[in-house]
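Homework help thread (please don't just give me the answer)

Our assignment gives two proteins as sequence + structure token strings and asks us to describe the second one. The first is just a warm-up. Here they are:
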Amino acid sequence: MTRWLSEQEQQTWQAFIRMRQRLDAALSAGLAGHGLSMADYELMVPLSAAPQGCLRARDLAAEVCWDKSRLSKQLARMAARGLVDRAPAADDARGIVVTLTDHGRDVLRAAAPEHVELVRKLFVDNMTRQEAAALRSLSDKVASAVEQS
């Protein structure tokens, strides 16, 4: 039996979608000024935090919840622009290690301050501490439910 959304639930869901779409568009526009897409940034951040700036492709895919095909295509585009390098893993010829290049790190360093300021202006500064705590709690609950499904 289908559990249809109530009017209030539908309004909440639509508000979330509208927020996500608008926020993604604004953040994408901000990164575009640095020649980056949101997809580029999503992959570059975990690479920049990893030891030696590299991760196995499967670990990177798991980190950002992407499938192998999407990751492979995005990494090919990024490699063509000199943002990342891909090489066979030393311990497993089937595995690929993705490394953030010096150029990629420079581009990320240049884009990050403006990106963070935009995140702050559009998202963080629009919440009280209580709202932020509630959002973290909700986000953790939803992520956990998705992971268990």
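The one we have to describe:
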Amino acid sequence: MEAPAAPHNAGDIELTVTSPDQMRELGRRLAKLLRAGDLLMLSGELGAGKTTLTRGLGEGMGVRGAVTSPTFVIARVHPSLVEGPPLVHVDAYRLSGGLDEMEDLDLDVSLPESVVVVEWGEGKVEELTEDRLQVVIHRAVGDTTDEVRHVTVTGLGERWAAVDLSVLSA
């Protein structure tokens, strides 16, 4: 039996975001590229803007309910109001068991008909699918009021091979 090939990297796009409003707008633009079955992994320090980006995704996807951090409930489902896929928003920060704990959430069941966004998903959700978007948000750390964020969006797998991520910088 052959080992599975490494996921194809469809390329990166790097963006600079200077305000929470711009981060939400990036989420709204990103929502236009998404379809049922998509997995997004969001990485970044506390306060980097992962939930703000997801709020913009929810707005762009036309889902019901305010998108807030699901830290204490672990996962929250936002049904579509516009005949699109639901948004499943997961905060894996408090999950230490890797894929076993993630499997308890049945994300593999939700994934085919939903857009699944996982904050803090590194090392926990990669086995769900080779096709995913990785979004890494870097911000200045320490005592700073700096709102500047450097965002790297990487498309992995066949799903993202033909998607032009440069539209995100429009």
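TA reply:
I won't write it for you, but here's a hint about the kind of observation we're looking for: The chain is about 20% helix and 25% strand.
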